[in-house]
Amino acid sequence: MIETGRRSAGPIRLTDASAVRLRPATGALITGGFWAGRRAVNRDVCVPEGWDRLHEAGNFHNLELAAARVTGDYVNDLPFLDSDLYKWLEAVAWTLDDPDLGSGPADQLLRRLAESTELLGAVQQEDGYLNSHFQVRFPGERFVQLPWGHELYCAGHLIQAAVALHRSTGEDGLLAIGRRVADLAVRAFGTGPGQVDGVCGHPEIETALVELYRETGERSYLDLAVYFVDRRGHGLLGDGRFGRHYWQDHTPVRDTLTAEGHSVRQLYLLAGVADVYVETGDATLLAAVERVWSEMVATKTYLTGGIGSHHRDEAFGDPYELPNERSYCETCAAIASIHLSWRMLMITGEAKYADLLERTLYNGFLAGLSLDGKRYIYANPLQVRDGHVASGDDGDYVRVPWFRCACCPPNVMRLLASLEHYVLLSDEGSLALHQFMTGTYSAEVAGGEARLAVTTDYPWDGAVRIRVEDGPDAPWTLALRVPGWAEGAGLTVNGTAVGGGALDGWWRVERSWAAGDEVLLTLPLEPRLTAADPRLDVDRGCVALERGPLVYCLEGVDHDGHRLDDLVLAADQPLVSAAEDGELGPVVVVRATGAVRGRPAAAWWPYGSAAAVAAPAAEPAALTAVPYFTWGNRAEGAMRVWVPSA
Question: N or C end of the chain: which has fewer CB within 10 A?
Answer without folding.
Answer: N
